[in-house]
Amino acid sequence: MSGGRGSRGAGRKRPAAGRGASEPPPFDDDIVCEVQALFSKVRGYRRPEGGAWRLPEAGSVLTEPPQLHPRLQELKRSLNAVKNQLSDKDLETWHQHTCSTNRAGTVTAHLRTTANAELCTQAWAKFYEVLGTFELLPAEALQQGELHSVHLCEAPGAFISALNHFLRTQLPAAKHWTWVANTPTSFTGPTRRDTIAGDRC
User: For the region Disordered, what residue ranges are annotated (predicted)?
Assistant: First the structure.
């Protein structure tokens, strides 16, 4: 397991590119509506009566016989038929195509330059969005200015980086942040017997 302290002001990062520059041109109304619709997909859950979340009894889980859903099976066959046609495509051409059709493909690059985001990946953007949308951090910890976090399956560290950025930019009162993280790894030897599984970050 690895751990660390949030780099609350330690060291200097390069200034974000584009600060002080003119604002980018506005998007047209159709794009704005589509983005707002995508970002408003939020599901809520209510506590059960009695106030405690409980897992179902182990004996009641997965006890019904499996079912095949014809429509889903048809979609699966259709998807696999299309995927099988991609095997002989030139990888560079295919990569250019998927990049040009990914509507969110420029988000992380934009965040890197405008927000000066460190280790900015899709995971970074997802977690930062979650932090900004929902009140996940304990109010008591924030009031006391001390936060501890545990990160599982964390490599390469984008969630830690996103939380650090969020704390520094949105919650500067949380001055003391410590974290621990792990991620599954394996060290492969010449034979399976020599392979060591471990938790490291």
Answer: 1-29
Whole-structure pTM value? 0.60
C-alpha dihedral (99, 105, 106, 107), degrees to nearest 10? -170
Task: Render pLDDT for 68-118 as a digit per residue (tens, 0 to 9).
Answer: 899 999 999 999 999 898 888 888 888 888 888 877 778 888 888 888 888
Q: Where are the alpha helices (DSSP H) in 55-157?
A: 70-84, 91-101, 107-114, 122-133, 139-144
Residues 77-112 as b/e (b if ≥16 CB within 10 A, e otherwise) read: eeeeeeeeeeeeeeeeeeeeeeeeeeeeeeebeebb
**Looking at residues 139-156, what average pLDDT do you find?**
87
Q: What is the dihedral of CA 16, 20, 21, 22, to 10 degrees?
A: 130
Those residues with Cβ within 8 angstroms of residue 138's Cβ, 6 or more apart along the chain or in another chain: 147
d(CA 179, CA 147): 8
Q: For residues 13 and 185, is the Cβ–Cβ distance under 8 A?
A: no
pLDDT band at 11 (very low <50, low <70, confident <90, very high): very low
**Residue 181 phi, psi dihedral angles, 5° rounding:** -150, 155
CB 154 within 8 A of CB 121: no
**pLDDT tens-digit series, residues 26-76:** 778 888 888 888 878 777 778 788 778 888 888 888 888 888 899 999 999
